[in-house]
């Protein structure tokens, strides 16, 4: 099964980097926090890149 990413919204600084990097997976919610709307919208490598770019490292893989 493909790995599924999620955002810890309490830690999100609303910078938008993940949305800019992988707009097919991440979007900003009504409170301007990032969220995953399509976990299968990009490759794991692309999602990992967004994780690595997140300035507060609040995007994780579900175990
Ligand atoms: S990169 Fe991290 S801090 Fe920035 S919007 Fe995405 S989840 Fe939030």
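^ Assign residues to that structure.
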């Amino acid at each position: 099964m493909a790995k599924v990413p999620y955002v810890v919204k309490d830690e999100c600084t609303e910078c938008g980097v993940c949305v800019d990097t992988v707009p097919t997976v991440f979007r900003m919610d009504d409170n301007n926090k990032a969220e995953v709307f399509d976990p299968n919208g990009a490759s794991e490598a692309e999602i990992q890149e967004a994780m690595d770019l997140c300035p507060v490292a609040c995007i994780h893989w579900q175990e």
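The chain has a mean pLDDT of 96.
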